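User: Show me a protein chain along with its predicted structure.
Assistant: Here is one chain, sequence first, then structure tokens.
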Amino acid sequence: MALRDQFTDQLKTSMKAGDAPRTSTLRMILARLKDTDIAARPKGIDKVPDEEVLSMLRGMVKSRRESVDLYRQGNRPELAAKEEAEIAVIEAFLPQQMDDASTAAAVDAAVAETGAASIKDMGKVMAALKAKYAATLDMAKAGPLVKAKLGG
């Protein structure tokens, strides 16, 4: 089942269950998806593919995590809790992220595969990681590992 269909089905289910916070988050996801589709129209794309939808969801999670940090600094735990609840709903649609050991193994494999020898080759390694593990690898965690591996 496509992600778009999952969003719609989950929205219907949450509306029937009377789960207002979940319904609100799902409506927010669908609105953001519609904006993404509209932004892609000049490129000749009517509906963005699932890879771009996943990227959009990751961006939504990232911005909410930043908001949680700011709310905690501002002593607003109720707003932080609301953002964390939204993160949980959004992350339910994302594939499971690699753990630290798997990430390290993927970095080692990418370094070996690209033949990277110095920090100047970091771009090649990151491109290889993104091409192979885009859906399941947190690139923000992989970057420092690659840098350390290449002696940077």
